[in-house]
Amino acid sequence: MATLSILGGRVIDPASKLDSITDLHIADGKILGTAPADFSADEQIEAKDHIVCPGLVDLSVRLPGAVHKGTILSETRAAAANGITTICCPPDTNPVIDTPVVAELLQHCAAGMAKILPLGALTQGLKGEHLAEMGILKEAGCIGVSNVQAIVNTDILRHALEYAANCELTVYLHAQDPWLGRDGCAHEGAISSRLGLSGIPEAAETIEVARLLLLIEMTGVRAHFCRLSSARAVNMVQEAQTKGLKITADVSAHHLFLTEKDISDYNSQCHVCPPLRSQNDKEGLREGLRHGSLHAICSDHQPHEADAKHSPFAMTASGISALDTLLPLTLQLAEEMQIDLMSLLGNITYKPAQILGIEAGTLAEGSTADVCIFDPNKRWTLNEENMHSLGQNSPFLGWELKGKVNYTLIDGQVVYTRPR
Question: Cross-referenced Pfam families, in alphabetical order (predicted)?
Answer without folding.
Answer: DHOase
